[in-house]
Amino acid sequence: MLVSCIQLPGNCSESQRYEVLIQYLQEAAQAKSQVIVLPELFLNPYFCIVEDQACFDLAITAEHPLIKQIIEWSGKSGAVVVVPYYEKRASGIYHNSALVTDGYGGIAGHYRKMHIPDDPGFYEKYYFIPGDQGFKSISTRYGNIGVLICWDQWFPEAARLTALAGCDLLVYPTAIGWDSTEASGPELESLKAQHLDAWITIQRSHAIANNVYVASCNRIGTEGHLEFWGNSFICAPGGKVLASAHETYQGLVSAHCPLNEISKQRHVWPFLRDRRIDAYQGLLEYHKNP
User: Fold this and answer.
1) Long-range contacts of 178-184 (CB under 8 A, 24+ apart)
2) Where are the domains of the chain?
3) Cα–Cα distance between 251 and 201 in angstroms, integer?
4) How far is 168 from 165, CA to CA, in rounded Å?
5) 124 is catalytic
6) Burial annotation 149-182 (CB, 10 A radius, 16+ → b, else e)
7) N or C: which end of the chain has fewer CB within 10 A?
8) pLDDT value at residue 290
9) Quick check: is 150 catalytic?
10) Does the domain formed by 2-284 have CATH 3.40.50.300?
11) Looking at 48, 150, 217, 235, which residue is catalytic?
12) Which of the following is catalytic: 48, 55, 113, 167?
């Protein structure tokens, strides 16, 4: 499976954003990419920086012309594309979602973000309700793909349940960055390095603990007071980073992901075999302070 993340800026007009996207989709197709991952909410600026009723009008359905064009492109190229978007489910009901094309001109599956943050600059609870489809593996012509979105990436339970559903590749469309108002000078640089390292580490740990490939695709650029940190990467089931990008790079991040490496890794590190499912009832409870 040749996997490509397309790291893109979000601080441009919709027409410019789509033109750049098509350019890199074509580049990925020429490189014979089989699975292509796009950043979270890539069709829009990251509007969750503020609470604004007008932003509800940005929500679309899978029947939107831009989404249909990508699905059609997928069918012509044969590539499977993970397409994040602001989903209008019904009047007043909106999700942070992603659909997976089937590479034949249709949709293989759909995921709605389960964990919704609410922090300064990330007011997502104002715009999205949590997903109601659970954690799943989506079967495609090249392998089984599990989709989780941004804030989902911090929760090991989400990665584990998606892996148990049968995914070979866990993808994280993402919009995450630094808050430029948090600090300044050396203190800010230290904080930025700490946050970035934690972000990469937690996702590599999901690859290791579940013996699956992980592809994380972030946006870049400055929007409001947020500086999106890029650093999209793809890693192997043992956690080795196969490909990565720096914080300002725009374009493809690609890696070959041989699926037979998953079973090899599970023979060496049989984490799934040795789980104590009889002893995990406490996961269904909130933490109890002593």
Assistant:
1) 178/226, 178/227, 178/229, 179/120, 179/121, 179/225, 179/226, 180/222, 180/225, 180/226, 180/227, 181/225
2) 2-284
3) 23
4) 10
5) no
6) bbbbbbbeebbbbbbeeebbbbbbbbbbbbbeee
7) C
8) 64
9) yes
10) no
11) 150
12) 113
* Residue 8 and residue 221 in contact, taking contact as beta carbons nearer than 8 Å: no
Q: Output the CA–CA distances (angstroms, integers) from residue 119 to 10, 177, 187, 192, 193, in the order listed.
A: 20, 13, 21, 17, 20
Q: pTM of this prediction?
A: 0.95
Kindly provide the residue ranges of all beta strands, DSSP E only, lying in 18-135, ordered along the sequence.
Answer: 35-37, 80-90, 93-101, 107-112
Rounded to 10 deg, the angle between the 156-164 and 185-210 helix axes is 30
Which distant-in-sequence residues (6+ apart) come within 8 Å of 79 by Cβ? 25, 28, 29, 33, 34, 35, 36, 101, 103
Distance from the Cα of residue 238 to its chain's centroid: 20
Residue ranges for the chain with pLDDT beneath 70 = 183, 290
DSSP 258: -
Q: What are phi and psi of 57, to 5 degrees?
A: -70, -10
- Identify the H or E element spanning 4: strand 2-7
| Distances, alpha carbon 132 to alpha carbons 94, 128, 151, 156, 158, in Å | 12, 12, 16, 19, 13
Give CA–CA dist 50/32, Å, rounded. Answer: 39
Which residue type, as a one-letter code, is found at position 131? G
Helices within the chain (DSSP H only): 14-30, 65-77, 156-164, 185-210, 260-268
Q: What is the pLDDT of residue 189?
A: 84
**Which one from 5, 40, 48, 192 is the annotated catalytic residue?**
40
Q: Is 88 a catalytic residue?
A: no
d(CA 119, CA 290): 27
End-to-end CA distance of the chain: 48
